[in-house]
Amino acid sequence: MDAETIIEERKQTHGDAHETFRLAGRLTTELVMAKDGILITPHEFALINIQHKIARIVCGNFHPDHWDDIIGYALLGKEQHKKASGEE
Prior knowledge:
Layout: H1 3-14, H2 17-35, H3 42-59, H4 64-84
Helix pairs in contact: 2-3, 3-4
């Protein structure tokens, strides 16, 4: 399968790439700006991945993988946040 075919298929589930990336970029910018120059932690990176999935849901069509991926990233983020807080 060539790249163009993959991009066209993904457009059906992820929506227009420009709109999805624009929304994901705005969401990510808010998180990064709130950090005020401090490095992003592993659990915060999980949040960025969730934001990207949210953008795909908003801009694309229903695709259950997006919702399942959010669950996975949330669980991984929770695990990383727990480790970082010394609760493990």
